UniProtKB/TrEMBL annotation:
<feature type="DNA-binding region" description="H-T-H motif">
    <location>
        <begin position="36"/>
        <end position="55"/>
    </location>
</feature>
<keyword id="KW-0805">Transcription regulation</keyword>
<keyword id="KW-0238">DNA-binding</keyword>
<dbReference type="InterPro" id="IPR050109">
    <property type="entry name" value="HTH-type_TetR-like_transc_reg"/>
</dbReference>
<dbReference type="InterPro" id="IPR036271">
    <property type="entry name" value="Tet_transcr_reg_TetR-rel_C_sf"/>
</dbReference>
<dbReference type="InterPro" id="IPR009057">
    <property type="entry name" value="Homeodomain-like_sf"/>
</dbReference>
<dbReference type="InterPro" id="IPR001647">
    <property type="entry name" value="HTH_TetR"/>
</dbReference>
<keyword id="KW-0804">Transcription</keyword>
<protein>
    <submittedName>
        <fullName>TetR/AcrR family transcriptional regulator</fullName>
    </submittedName>
</protein>
<feature type="domain" description="HTH tetR-type">
    <location>
        <begin position="15"/>
        <end position="73"/>
    </location>
</feature>
<dbReference type="Pfam" id="PF00440">
    <property type="entry name" value="TetR_N"/>
</dbReference>
Length: 204
């Protein structure tokens, strides 16, 4: 009985340490994508040996931090009502998605520096699928353009979000303007072209 209680206590301590380390990684990488293992261990209040006992490398820890942020962001996006007009849903997704990407931008930068591009893309698959499904819904209902594949529109929307985050980071875009701008750009990209635009696009 005593051994069982001790094992449970050790597992609880291990979970708490792992949680502290991930939270410390998010905080440190959020301040600087080059944050070191020493920085993160100090932030978490643990030693390097304890940290490496949970995460065998800086890469593994960076991935864990990104996975955590994406999971928390997905909970926010999951709560958005997408059952009405797809245009309203797209605006809400882009505005909320922008805030989440802005919060995770530095951690994402750290991940892109140490993880294979395919892995980063894989981790983004679920939120991108949500946008893709909404684009397909809007195309089916005739409120989004159907002359461009949904895959390509989704990719453009992804780049709008990350481009805005990069512009904010470099000071080219004000944080308070970004949610409205990314939403308006997304709606403009997906809008059904007018007859005039169709005519102008025809080859001579």
């Amino acid at each position: 009985m005593a051994h069982s209680v001790a094992r449970s206590a050790r597992r609880a301590d291990a979970r708490q340490n792992a949680e502290k380390i991930v939270r410390a990684a998010i905080a440190c990488l959020g301040r600087s994508p080059e944050a070191s293992i020493n920085d993160i261990a100090q932030e978490a209040g643990v030693g390097r040996v304890t940290l490496y006992g949970h995460f065998p490398s800086r890469e593994a820890l960076v991935e864990a931090a990104l996975v955590r942020l994406l999971a928390e962001g997905d909970e926010v996006l999951e709560a958005i009502d997408l059952t009405g007009d797809p245009r309203d849903g797209l605006r809400a997704l882009m505005e909320s998605g922008w805030l989440l990407i802005a919060q995770a931008a530095s951690v994402l930068q750290a991940a892109q520096a140490v993880l294979p591009p395919g892995r980063v893309q894989e981790l983004h698959a679920k939120p991108e699928q949500r946008v893709h499904d909404l684009v397909c819904q809007g195309q089916a209902e005739g409120v989004f353009r159907a002359d461009i594949p949904a895959d390509l529109l989704t990719s453009v929307l992804h780049h709008i979000l990350h481009g805005a985050a990069a512009d904010v980071a470099t000071g080219r875009l004000d944080t308070t303007d970004a949610p409205r701008f990314v939403a308006e750009m997304a709606l403009a990209v997906c809008a059904v072209p007018t007859a005039k635009h169709h005519h102008a696009a025809k080859p001579r």
